[in-house]
Amino acid sequence: MVVTGGTARVLRQALDHEQRLSLSIALLEQLRSGYDEVTAGLLLDLATNLFHSNVNDDLTEILASQIERGAGDNIAALIVGSQAFLERLLSLASERLAAASDYATSTPDVLLPGYAEAIVPSFRHISTQEDATFSLGLASHWMGFFTYAAESDLANNAHVKQVMPFALSFLGCINSSVLACARVFVSRLLHMCIADHEISRQIHAAIRALLTTDRPKIYQTVGYTVWSQAVRLQISVVGISLDVEADSYWQHVENGLRRGDAERRKLSLDILKGSVTYAVWQNKLRLVTRDAKVPTAMVIAQYDRFFTIFETLVLARYANLVAECENDLALLASARSLLPPRWLFVLLASGLDKNMQDQNRKYVGGWLLRTDLTFVDNASGFIDLLRDSFMPWAVEGTLYVSSTKRHGNGIRCQHGERVARFISSVLRRRPDGKAVQSVLNLLLDFLIARQANLFTSAAIHILIGIAVGLAQLPDIGPPDDSVDKVLAVSSWNTLSDIASDALVKQCHVIYHSLTDSTGIIKSNLSILSQERLATLNAKVERFESSSRGESYSRDADLLQLSNRELAIDQAITKSQDLLTRLDEVVTWNSTDLLSQLQDLYTDVDFLEYPRQLLLTSPKVLFHPEVFRRALEDAGSGDRQIAEFLQSVLSQLAQVASRRSFAFASLMVSLRTGLLTVPEAARLLEMQDLLATTAQNPPQPSVDLTMEYSMLTILDSVAPGRDNTAVYYGVSEGHGFAAYIDLIARLGAQFDSLALDIASAILLRWKQQKDPPPSVSPWKTTLQLQVLLVCLEHAHASALFEKLGQIMDDLLHILALEPLPRYRHIIEWTVGRMQLAYPSLQSHSLGLLATKDHHSNPKFLASLMKIGVMIAGTPDSTEDLASTLAITFVSHSASSKIVVRHEAQWSFPQLMDICRRRSWTSITQNPAYTTLEDYIRALPRFGDPPPERIMSALDPIIDHTLTNLAEGLWTQLDDTRPPLTGKDDFLRLYGADAKLNTEAWPPCIMPLGPPITRPPGPDPFAKAELEPIRDSMAPLTSLESKALQTKGTAYFAISSVPCPSTPLHRTVLISSLVDNALNLGGLSRCAEIFGAEAMYVRDPRVVADKAFVSVSVSSHNHLSILPCGVQSLPALLQAKKREEGWRVVGIEQTDRSLVVGSEELGAALLDGGEKEGSKIILVVGSEREGIPASVLAVCDVLVEIAQVGVTRSLNVQTAAAVVLFELGRLRKQRDGARKEEAIVLQRLKGDAAQGEAEIQS
What we know:
This protein is mainly alpha-helical. The chain is built from 57 helices and nine strands.
């Protein structure tokens, strides 16, 4: 403010009226040529008592023009004390705003569609100003002037009441700057006129219009902001009523909680709090509770609990808090809840919103799936929750994929089963047939509407839930058009065979449930539905009577088969005919055979390797007769068939790596052909394929895993039928059994084959860097299983010259490998080699005798296990046992726990072996027996850990294919089930009984007995989640575990003057933060980036050790001021009104500006219009962020762009980023101003020089 009052008094005393008038006119002319604040202030003081209309009118217009240029706050400060000019400008502001409002409400495309119609009946001012279009652009400046004048107590309540209707009309303005100024005007000045009934009615008309718009969400946010403030103000004003009797009132609150962003939800929650308080005060409990007879304190307590749960589930920043809400949710869903079910539904719908954090959504949806909703799911609003929120979440594909796991012998989708159970329970709990049909039609409509984008497993599990639910209902009600909808779903023809059959079976069950209970006959259906029913019956009949491998051309029209399906069917027929001729051992012409094989494979390739042909064609392509003909031709120099087979094998192997179901058929066919004609292995160069398979075993894709889960569903609807055989011929485990058995047999025929495969596997393992990573993507258990089998062939063939190097390589790998299951197979392999060649034992005994126990204790432990393993074999010697005993004694006292424990476990086992062999030199040694007695007395020795039992191995008894495939050792550190097992080998050998296998090479390893597993659940099955129990907490104990609200001491706001006034000033508000560590970090950030003060709840926090540990000494260079949470809105309003600070909040909302954007720079620094800037930065609490009451005061909201999936930054980090950005923007603008000043000075100098030259 420019002080000119003293000068004006001197002039008024020294000059007469005419002289003052002349001076005023001169000053007026000077202002017209260029506005100057000192001149304007002087003229204002002189003209106040001049009573000259022309001068006053002209000065008013000049001041108005400055307001319209954005200097409204300066003009408001200038006219303090001049009531006449204040009234003139306020009247002019009212007139200009009225004109702009009139133009806005009567001109298309200025306000939101329908907004003018909604508010015009409440207020309409017909302006006489001609240039109304121009005035709309200046409305924001006049509202800014009026806001400053009102907050400075220059304008009274009557002025505000006069202008408030015009500002309300601008809340629906398309122009963003006008909207922003109207929002500020209404938010700041609402308290001055809320007691006026007409203004209150107009405010609510504007709010309703904003809340019902479908335009950008910013308008709804404005509506909820104004509504929130109105509710808080109206509650405190006696005689003002809220329209809580209207259902639309509560519906708008619901919409804000359900569909809003964080800011709208906080505002809506604030509205709900105030509305419930008002209803309780007005004795309208029936509107807010189930039981109006209960004490109001209990109602308020349960609502407070609901607010806490909502903040935790929907607004909280930490997902780990969500799990603490189970008892609270259970109470809301129980008969003991006093709240209407609508608020539980709102809470769940908000938690399932697609914009919510996935982990929170998953928890809320999971709670719904496992909770008994008997007391609430027949209430109004449940169907909306089911349709709009639950079902869209429940069908998300990631939920099905992530929960599809192996359970026992099958693969099940846990999420899908839960959804099915939930749907069936909802149907069963409907009170009558009409309600059943309502839910049924909802579900069927949902399926039909989303057919194109619906995850297949989701659709089938929904149908399962419907089928199970209807089957248990005595009254289904009149089906209306639900039968037609079921038949429409059954006609979906874009699914795979398995999914189609699963869907068809469920639709068939649902159809009969509907028709059997209601007596509907086929003739009552539409023609289209009758056609669909015929197709449905044909598909079901085919499913129940035949296999998918058979031809179905005869049903092509009825089954609505595509041309591709017909082509596949023809190729299958061709393959079966060719296989029959090969089995009959027909004498083939090589050219004819090659031609037919090429013709078959061309069909397979052209049809893009369909499942049916991948299962049948390998039996033909790799038939023993084909191998014999290829060998005969190759012997005579013709390699056409051999080269064709090599090419086909390579391509099919690549296909099987991507579509693992094809692996079993391929490997079974190869095994049959190669074991019948072993010489063909050289012809096909099988070592490369076998080694590659070990290094990259085929694994089912996500889609294939989901299809396997469909097999489990089909098993439940068709018990006794082997659906795996129907659709896939044999399982993948069957294929791996054939693969291992092929190597175990074929290696005996070709020594080099086994050694080549072993060398290929060993090469990469021994080239690992030290230390290797705990998990390497290229390592597989299958590699070491195959290595063990191949080395059995190697040492059985007496290739001793290479075994020494292989032994060293294995010991080197064992020394590096960290994973127990890999170490176990390597120990097994080393033990078998040393058992076959005792001279190789020296390799490990020499390493075991080392005195260096620190460099690799796990390796020493493995060597001790191998030593005991060899000592227990029939061919071991007493010298070996004695050497081990001496070593174990010293190792039992090792400083390394791993070495010491292994020696103490191994020594008693060694002594037992010695007693069985009667090696008295060891068993009668007092030192040995004393040590043994001590070890056996240890409590741990009698109760070995599971790992000891799992890793136990007898190199002779346990050396079987069964143990190799699925022994207890597979559970050591892996949750994945084994690739194959004894049952697969038995099925493989059972199929061999139908073949002539007398000439086949023998298997190098016996099958062995089944694995005896300890009692308990399947270690590879995912446990089911138990249903939660209803909260048993008494109603008198309503403390929620969801959020812990700490006690707060509130302090009076004090003003601490700064020693100097810098150009830019920053204050950090951290009163919402209660963690001392975070407050210490905020203090450090604030001081580093130049803030002058930081507000906290309690300044005594600076003495907290946690605070000091992070803040270092920053709080000694920073003013730490007190401000409680409740006092914060008042502090911010006072800072804005009295000192001109701008309030900036860090929060993610729809009006937040992104750090780094151009818009943020303009918003933070007023577009560069002022020299300096005063910014108050508000950071929210760690859990809830910034509350609605503080958000409403913020001028600007800021958010930080994110790339990752983590939802938010720590409050210290977020504050540091924004403080740095604020400093950068200020520095950038100051630099630009400095450059402008330099350029301007240079131009002035050039102009002065030019003028001097002209004069000279």
